[in-house]
Amino acid sequence: MLTQIKDLAKSLAPTLSEIRRHLHSHPELSGHEQQTAAYVAGVLSSCGLQVREGVGKVGVVGELLGNGSDTRLLAIRTDMDALPIQERTDLAFASRHPGIMHACGHDVHTTVGLGTAMVWAQLRDVLPGRLRFLFQPAEEIAQGAAWMVKDGVMEDVSGIFSVHVFPSIAAGVVGIRYGVLTAAADDLEILIQGESGHGARPHEAIDAIWIAAQVITALQQAISRTHNPLRPVVLTIGQIKGGRASNVIADQVRLLGTVRSLHPETSLELPAWVEQIVGGICQTYGAKYEIKYHCGVPSVINDFRLTRILEMAATEAWGAEQVQIIQEPSLGAEDFSVYLQHAPGSMFRLGVGNRDRPNYPLHHPQFEVDESAIVTGVVTLAYAAYQYWQ
Ligand SMILES: [Zn+2]
Ligand SMILES: [Zn+2]
Predict the structure, then answer these.
(1) Which end of the chain is more exposed for a tag (fewer CB within 10 A), N or C?
(2) How does 209-237 read in b/e, with b if 16+ C-beta sit within 10 Å?
(3) Which residues of 255-274 are buried (b: 16+ CB within 10 A; e: fewer)?
(4) What span, in angstroms and rounded, lies between the C-alpha atoms of 243 and 205?
(5) Are 134 and 78 in contact (CB under 8 A)?
(6) 34 C-alpha vs ligand 1 centroid, how far in Å?
(7) Domains, the chain, ranges and CATH?
(8) CA atoms of 320 and 349, how far apart (whole Å)
(9) Which helix (H) or strand (E) holds 51?
(10) Ligand 1 center to residue 24 CA distance, Å?
């Protein structure tokens, strides 16, 4: 089976490169992937998959029934959106849409999903169970997965795989991570309401800037003293606004931040923890406050069994030296976690680094991938899918 999958994937390589280049030159922003979705639906239909469009607003679902020897349904999820970044590569197929770029490799993900569908469409007689391909919009704004789930894409699904490119891993190498892969990412807004006054008479006012400074310092210090240090939390205040003039005491300060954590229990504690610290300081100094704590996507926690299947499939396909066990999780966020609330799954990291040139990070205007990774991704996913039913 592996040889058949490899041969098919290799024979598809030129087509897959064309697909990826088309997607790369026509990037679309989160929630606006209409052209991409239509293109994806066209490819899936031409391969004979059952296709549903407009799932999760602009997502696409393609399904292959298999020969029915196994009733379990496996899903494969790839994302389709690009970023509001002006591309600065000199690729012939660089973005034709000003200010929009596939700088996170979702063009590669979509291509890998399509390639896997093409391979299994040709081998459908020996496909044991149902295989459902989810082409998701709006991953970069952490909403697309929830839209897809709301439209029922996880019904009957017993396992799910996904992939993300990684420029610091060389093309040809597959990165496998057991357990926690990415962080829970929450948004935080704190409004501190004091009382204005003359800069020379602070005792007659309630200085919102000084109180905000205390709040920020207390949050940072309390993280290291009140949370289990083996369960990391990162809180970043990225924006602070307040004040009118050098000699006027500010009556209001607004803080915006992001909170990242790796353990579900810690994530649950964070809203009340922030409230306690902000509330304590504001009350001490007589300020009013308002906190908007928005719990974003949870942590991606890769399932042991499915991760093992990915690891074994990649090892058999490429050799143990081409499989890298990732030692540390990332504090980045990924809405693949939303699917994992409905079925066990695993996401692997597809190396796209090129040894002969600088490899810019994800979300960089000069981000590029080594396209040879597409076949690596297709074979790994297609063979892992087969192994899932063994
Ligand atoms: Zn991204
Ligand atoms: Zn991404």
Answers:
(1) C
(2) bbbbebbbeebeebbeeebeeeebbebeb
(3) bebbbbbbbeebbeebbebb
(4) 13
(5) yes
(6) 19
(7) 2-181+300-388 (3.40.630.10), 184-294 (3.30.70.360)
(8) 15
(9) strand 50-55
(10) 14
The full DSSP string for 99-139 is: T-B--SSHHHHHHHHHHHHHHHHHTGGG--SEEEEEEES-T
The count of other CB atoms within 10 Å of the CB of residue 168 is 12
> Quick one: which ligand is closest to 335's CA?
2
Half-sphere exposure of 350 (CA within 13 A, CB side): 29
| Spatial separation of the C-alpha atoms in residues 220 and 46, rounded to whole Å | 55
pLDDT over 90 percentage in the chain? 97
Task: Provide the token pair at 6.
Answer: 């490899």
Separation CA 53–CA 134 (nearest Å): 11
Nearest of 152, 126, 133 to residue 47 by alpha carbon: 133
Ligand lying nearest the CA atom of residue 83: 1
C-beta atoms surrounding 94 within 10 Å: 16
Q: Which of 337, 334, 333, 369 is nearest to 350 (CA)?
A: 369
Q: How far is the CA of 86 from the centre of ligand 2 (A)?
A: 17
Task: Give the tens place of pLDDT for each residue, 245-283.
Answer: 999 999 999 999 999 999 989 999 999 999 999 999 999
Which ligand lies nearest the alpha carbon of 165? 2
Strand runs (DSSP E) across 109-263, as ranges?
130-136, 157-170, 174-176, 179-180, 184-193, 197-198, 233-242, 248-249, 252-261
**What 8-state DSSP symbol labels residue 202?**
G
Query: Tens digit of pLDDT for each residue in 293-311?
Result: 999 999 999 999 999 999 9
CA distance 315 to 310: 8
- State pLDDT tens for residues 71-88: 999 999 999 999 999 999
| pLDDT at residue 120, rounded to an integer | 97
| Alpha carbon distances (Å) from 305 to 71, 255, 308 | 18, 42, 5
Tokens 């029915």 correspond to what residue?
68
Write down the pTM of the prediction.
0.91
Q: Whole-angstrom Cα distance, residue 390 to residue 387?
A: 5
Residue 104 Cα to ligand 1 middle (Å): 5
